[in-house]
Sequence to fold (171 residues):
Amino acid sequence: MGRPSNLSNTQWEKIGERLLKGEKLSALAREFNVSKTAISVRFSKRNETVKATASLILEGKNALNKLTVPEKIAVSKQVELLESMQEHLLHAGNYGASTAHKSNMFANIKMEALDPDKPLDDEKNIEIAKDVMRLTKIANESSVIARDFLSPKNHKEKEESQVIQIMGGFE
Fold:
């Protein structure tokens, strides 16, 4: 990580807004007394994402404008359904993560009950180990929705879903 910036967050936001409006990077670098590289590193990916999202929204608006009123209503209902599903999955992920956390906690407590002086063929140790395995399996299975929701491979799908949400307001 580089050295701390001399600019405030507000100044960086202004630079970002002006870049999106088409101002030249070199002019902004001179005005704010920072390097072009510093600005580029901070904003290049973000501005690409903003522009791509704006393009998707425009495409969506154009597509909606070509639909009949009943088709627009159908699209709106479909968007509401997708938003509801997304909200439910978010809550399911939250509950799953909580269940995973608690199951791991109980598995750790059970692990402490294992007697290290007794061999694994001891019946009590075997039962404890089986309990630990069951709790660990529950924890792993419970974490799937949350893990998948947070996975970077799903970010593009989430961004597209957010665009669908935004388009729900353009009837």
Remarks:
- The chain has two domains: 1-66, 68-171.
- The two ends are 45 Å apart (CA to CA).
